[in-house]
Amino acid sequence: MWTQDHELFDLAHVDTVTVGVFAWALTQPAPDVYDFTTLDAIVERAAAEGRDVCLATGTGAHPAWLARAHPEVTRVDFEGRRHRFGQRHNSCPSSPVFRRLSAELARRIAARYAANPAVVAWHVGNEYGGACYCELCTAAFRDWLRDKYRTLDRLNHAWCTMFWSHTFTGWDEIEAPSALTEHWRGPDHTAFQGITLDYLRFMSDAMLANFTDEKAAIRESDPDTPVTTNFMGMYRPLDYHRWAPHLDFASWDNYPPDDRSAARMALTHDLMRGLKDGQPFWLMEQTPSCTACRDVNPLKRPGINRLWSWQAVAHGADAVLYFQLRASRGASEKYHGAVIGHAGRADTRVFGEVAQLGAELSRLGGVSLGARTPARVALLFDWDSWWALEISDGPSRLVRYQQVVLAYHRALWDAGTDVDVVPVTADLSGYDVVVAPALHMVKGDLAQRLEMVAARGGSVVTTFLSGRVDEDDNAFLTDVPGPLGTLMGVRVDEWDAREADVVNPVRLSAGGEELEVASRLLFELVIPQGADVVGTYRADFYAGTAAVTRNTFGAGHGWYVAAGLEQDGVSWVMRQVLDRHGLVGPYADVADLETAVRVAPDGTRLLFLLNHAAVAVEVPACATGVDLLSEQQIERGQPLSLAPAEVMLIKCDGAPAAP
Amino acid sequence: MWTQDHELFDLAHVDTVTVGVFAWALTQPAPDVYDFTTLDAIVERAAAEGRDVCLATGTGAHPAWLARAHPEVTRVDFEGRRHRFGQRHNSCPSSPVFRRLSAELARRIAARYAANPAVVAWHVGNEYGGACYCELCTAAFRDWLRDKYRTLDRLNHAWCTMFWSHTFTGWDEIEAPSALTEHWRGPDHTAFQGITLDYLRFMSDAMLANFTDEKAAIRESDPDTPVTTNFMGMYRPLDYHRWAPHLDFASWDNYPPDDRSAARMALTHDLMRGLKDGQPFWLMEQTPSCTACRDVNPLKRPGINRLWSWQAVAHGADAVLYFQLRASRGASEKYHGAVIGHAGRADTRVFGEVAQLGAELSRLGGVSLGARTPARVALLFDWDSWWALEISDGPSRLVRYQQVVLAYHRALWDAGTDVDVVPVTADLSGYDVVVAPALHMVKGDLAQRLEMVAARGGSVVTTFLSGRVDEDDNAFLTDVPGPLGTLMGVRVDEWDAREADVVNPVRLSAGGEELEVASRLLFELVIPQGADVVGTYRADFYAGTAAVTRNTFGAGHGWYVAAGLEQDGVSWVMRQVLDRHGLVGPYADVADLETAVRVAPDGTRLLFLLNHAAVAVEVPACATGVDLLSEQQIERGQPLSLAPAEVMLIKCDGAPAAP
Amino acid sequence: MWTQDHELFDLAHVDTVTVGVFAWALTQPAPDVYDFTTLDAIVERAAAEGRDVCLATGTGAHPAWLARAHPEVTRVDFEGRRHRFGQRHNSCPSSPVFRRLSAELARRIAARYAANPAVVAWHVGNEYGGACYCELCTAAFRDWLRDKYRTLDRLNHAWCTMFWSHTFTGWDEIEAPSALTEHWRGPDHTAFQGITLDYLRFMSDAMLANFTDEKAAIRESDPDTPVTTNFMGMYRPLDYHRWAPHLDFASWDNYPPDDRSAARMALTHDLMRGLKDGQPFWLMEQTPSCTACRDVNPLKRPGINRLWSWQAVAHGADAVLYFQLRASRGASEKYHGAVIGHAGRADTRVFGEVAQLGAELSRLGGVSLGARTPARVALLFDWDSWWALEISDGPSRLVRYQQVVLAYHRALWDAGTDVDVVPVTADLSGYDVVVAPALHMVKGDLAQRLEMVAARGGSVVTTFLSGRVDEDDNAFLTDVPGPLGTLMGVRVDEWDAREADVVNPVRLSAGGEELEVASRLLFELVIPQGADVVGTYRADFYAGTAAVTRNTFGAGHGWYVAAGLEQDGVSWVMRQVLDRHGLVGPYADVADLETAVRVAPDGTRLLFLLNHAAVAVEVPACATGVDLLSEQQIERGQPLSLAPAEVMLIKCDGAPAAP
């Protein structure tokens, strides 16, 4: 079968393979036995065939013998139940035996294969995630807390334990927050936000330690080959911003929830690119056809695999890989899409499309490798705010962090604006516009840095439920929006939350433009403290009061969106902001025609046009250059026609602009 | 901050403060250390400022050190899981160490503060509730059963254990009924209703013992100051009728599910007033603005806090308090509404409305204190029937006790009739009308007492699913409705249950009035045994048969409503009944204009008018007197206009009557 | 009360009673005490009254003392929780003490009553089902696996453990697949289908061993009286085809989900009759009026109990019994319908209808006893395919085995065709048509046997998701549909799954007939390999491609239905097939008029006509003979009128045929 695999890989221009991701039981079949026979054969064959290898340490699932010998290596779940051997991503991150053996396996694999030039990257673990609530993790949590707070007084103050008689008088009184302690109705409902927030941070750090354990072991024999692990995009349990410095490059697995996810994927790519300051990433996994893990697993339509792969490249991917190359014979992923199906055919539609894309990418060579996105807009993405917002009791469980962020990013995406999605600690000095949706928690000097953006003429946009809590999730004992109040020029005393079917229309008005849009879920009542009113509520007892404001701050603006505007309202606001800075893209009014720009290390400017619409679009060219896919010359202004799912990649002679 | 608090309390006319509710960790920071320094300061300051103090024992949540030292003090949940330290209301009621230490704390607090004249009430525990299923509770349950049944034969008979091979041959074979024993699909699905019912009774008693433990400890040093705990209205787990004799006055926390709950709140106030035979109660908690614990937490509209506070007074409250006075800095209630927000402002809308109401209440002085409601209608509310109905397998899980009771109470409320909501053991001799919705269980001499009501000319109303089981939840081995059959003059052999979307219209007809209304969920097939048919089904194979009957019994009537009538049908039936007794209020046809009467100890008759409608209403005055709020003289028959949320409190010269 | 019972039994023509089903606590009140006093009295009285007795061993629920003395006798649930005493069907099937004591009880009961001629059948246990996940079961599972696979290599291959590092290196590393090991989101979501599938098989076998334990004990003293247990129709946890050889006759309890279940009940009766190769079965339980265990328990309409009882007879029942004869006084079935209600009346509608049916059955005598159904159509029903399909990850959780089977059976039922529902191991040589819906797993020589059906001129019909996996649930490494490909003449490379609201219309066309129907949920993309295209998709990128095909194979056909056709599409396909073989019944176009034929041992041909419609139907008679119910002579062609719920039982002079 390997021979057939490699023949088909050649047909499909597969030049890089990830191997060994779940090979622990294979490579260490017993406590004292390491056996690399099969892995040797796989790597040697791949190398011999001229393929690059992304070599996994294989620690994403432990072997059965380990769970039998050390029951504490399995996890205890949120419900307090000790699991036994099964599934994957099943190791307690605090288990000493897991930490020792996983590092040892990584050490031996690195020692064995580091010298093989085919190995171009190390793949540690797999899709880190989940959580453990065992005694070992509880003990480790206490240590983590001791490191952080030093004294119980500081911890009690941070967690506001005076509330509900929670004052801790000994470190060993502290429990992991779970269904058996602080939680009810699941992980988002906690009696003590501070405890839960710290446990989320701790668990993210604990798994990061598993990663760095293995990376350190690899570095013992290989000082250079880059090390990564495959992230999962907007994955709530892990704060990838805390992880990113420890990876040599970012990589992620793109399994969008449905086939209407173009904007969502764009955001996620931007987030992944932002992890390491704009450095290109790998798309480590995607299905060529369908998933298996969903209740309903639709098929990718013709052209979609190609379109989405190019979208990844457009947003910063330097590599595009698949899961899976050949369909598993059995178990839970046997129906997950594969480049090569169970019958081993090369004449399927799916294989054909993979091969066509492979050929294109081969033909393009390295033109986009290492290219950067020249964004002048930053969107702040903050795991702490995500966590704090969604574990909060009140004002509304219906307000979801991702939905708010998606709406603001989508407004930018629709406008054809390149965006960097960055952590709150990022350097903001290079951006014209900074958007901070639902920035619930404001930490450190962020408020001052946002003020500096506005002071020098930039625009800062934030929304309802921003500026509410400090880094311990305690309320600022000031007017809302806390440290953002000066920049925003508003004060919020009250807020109203309503069921999803309640609409309060908002009348937006600026520069002669007017629009009435719907808002839902959350309605803050704004008392302007110097800000201009741009939008007003039209209903309820607060009809006529401010729903959207713009405050002049230095040479720039602070925008405050107090209402849960629907997409058209968000888009209207963002267009006002982008217009001021001349950042609206050339096809902002063409629905689902995505544009993205990358600038290669040699200065080459690449313009990607991606038609996500179900219909063909016709637009005038916004740049002069060569479409590297069709190899046709394009003159600015000439009519371009893109069929559904069509892609153009124009190597531009100058900067693109509205034609 | 305390100084600011008291300045603001003065502005808001806050004259009473509840303190120390969750102070256990503060007042007993270690097993052998009691420290009242902070509580002393709080109480002394409050007293010095001239405020009354409702002083809590603070045992609603145990301290972390206690859970660490005595793991058995935490609860085991319905799923059989031992909890660890967290949340509140977290103590096993059967735990000896909890019982000892909670009583000891109450003892010490009472000893320390009993002499302080500022202390006007003792607040024991907090919102007792939940349940525990641990070994200690199981053992205590067995003891409770032994006390109740004396012999296993009696227990086996009561529980009908012959069914499904359940005969118990030793007391220690009995388990607490939980997800691990008799239950599936949650607490309402049990294989043995009798076991589950007794456990509900036992658990209510076990928590009551926690209350009486502390009360007894308080009484050691304070023989007089009244002792209460804050109830939660229609709260299923605790039989407040069994608790009420042990409280010196009732108090409760009013957090209605939504802002359309005026009728529901009226019922709940009536229920709380009925706990102690009509004696006034305290409204111990309400939010001035919004809750935080719901998925969606809407804001109270302008005027609503005042309207609802006056509604409490109208139904028997002698005190109106808030939770919370100042917003918590952190944890799960930091977004719960507060009189004083995080910024400490007095110029917010919410503070302003609280202060306005405070001023009104101050101005009124004690005019309504100790006043009683002169109701001639009693509605029976019975925890045993609630439990029995809702843990029953068949005929319909969709029939919910509260919904049935709410519909009948609402009919009375809409009609402007004062109602006492009383236990089945109440003296019924003073009532013209007794309504017993869904009285599933009929105990003791209740049937005879109801017959006496009718015999002397009164009206008794009951419904489907009444008179089905005895106090052990065993079916009466007679025709349905069991002991109510003679009074009702009907027999029921069959009953049909249908999904919520199935309607059977019922044609109602009495005294020349006709109406066709919808009925749903449950349809009993009635064979009249002397009763007159007032309503008939219009559909299905039982079309034309009786759905509502009225039986002449002595000088009065027994009404049987066999169908799940919707509100308009229930209201029609109740209007027939009230009309006969001349009990329809003056504004029965004015939607959402509530009236309530209280008679002060000096005979002063107070008429409350509360406009719950979203629009202004205009009505002729039904009484002559003085509106104590506007200080205006009112002449009977003069037009009155009440804006939305407006309240009038008329000190009447005579009894109100239709103008 | 027994006296009244027997008087009423006489009135109702109750000639057989099942007794002792949950009598363990009664017959063995302590470890060393057996007491048959009460059971003696019951059996003696029944015998004296001339009634037959179906005598239960009473082991469907263990006594409380047993659970107390041997906690391991209770089950551990899927969530890993050890249960304590409660409910019923509560014994761990692997518990040695349960196995020993249940067999001993059966042994003693058989020894005591075997000689009593009133005992006509033994009823072992009750509604076997559920599952256990305890240590004892885990150990027994390992033994079962060792017996099956002999070596771990074979097991690892069968379970495809190379996936996700699951290779087992010791038998004791294997865990029962549960929420604590391989599962998430419940029993259908498993990481390893092979493990879960084998546990389902093991658990079915383990409970079967409980049955055979008791049967063997009975056989020690009674070599002849037939032994059964009451099945539950389409009950997923137990593979009744593996059980059937061990029962002397099949019996089952018919509690359909609603009153529109006529077709479903027909399928289930056919399945039960097919368990023992067409041998008649008993309808062991049905309610005369209503259930109690559902959320909503509607009443059986007038005539329905009779109609459904006759339907059972029409499909092969030789006995029709009720649960319950007298209503339980208490516990969870006190509101379950009963022949005799709590009041003990004979003048209720329900009792009257039971008595009417009893009189009819008495009058008919033994005319239908032992009769067989002369079906020429077989429908394959396969627990392995059911399990494999529903525990599969991908392609769609919305495709449910029962729904697919129901649709194909319903098409046959609507067409008035007698159908045998048989296991995949059945002898197919006698059938003209074999229908295999969703035959996910193809085992042994089944594909060849299906080919033989077609080769000799028969028609074989299968659908999407058939022929996918081998008996270990591993994918066939060939084109889909695996071993069925040759017979079907198609190849499937891709499949699309969509949410339930997505419709792809299918244009069907054959023999000049055309129809456009809806398909949903699953859409396989068919590449014909010789088959004719009968139906084509009308939408999506695969519009115009094959959705239904018919392949000529030998003298017959293989039909492949690749799309999730709605009922009208399935019916159209099946009518094409039946037409070819002349198997469409006389009233195929009369909605809800069911026909069924049984041929008695003496050759008498009985035609049942059952009107399930809510309206009367008029049809010409399709046979000449005598309606045994009305005792009227029928001439073929004469008009017959059947009121709603009416039944005719025509003893035919010849074979029925379209009039």
Automatic annotation (TrEMBL), chains A, B, C:
GO MF term list: beta-galactosidase activity; metal ion binding
GO cellular component: beta-galactosidase complex
Annotated Glycoside hydrolase family 42 N-terminal domain residues: 2-363
Superkingdom field: Bacteria
Catalytic activity: Hydrolysis of terminal non-reducing beta-D-galactose residues in beta-D-galactosides
The entry's keywords: Glycosidase, Hydrolase, Metal-binding, Zinc
Domain Beta-galactosidase trimerisation residues, every copy: 375-583
Amino-acid positions noted as binding Zn(2+) in the UniProt annotation, renumbered to this chain: C92, C132, C134, C137
Domain Beta-galactosidase C-terminal: 593-647
Active site, per annotation: E127, E285
Enzyme class at the top of the EC tree: hydrolase
UniProt-annotated binding residues for substrate: R88, N126
Single GO BP term: galactose metabolic process
EC number(s) stated in the UniProt entry for this protein: 3.2.1.23
Family: Belongs to the glycosyl hydrolase 42 family.
Protein name as catalogued: Beta-galactosidase
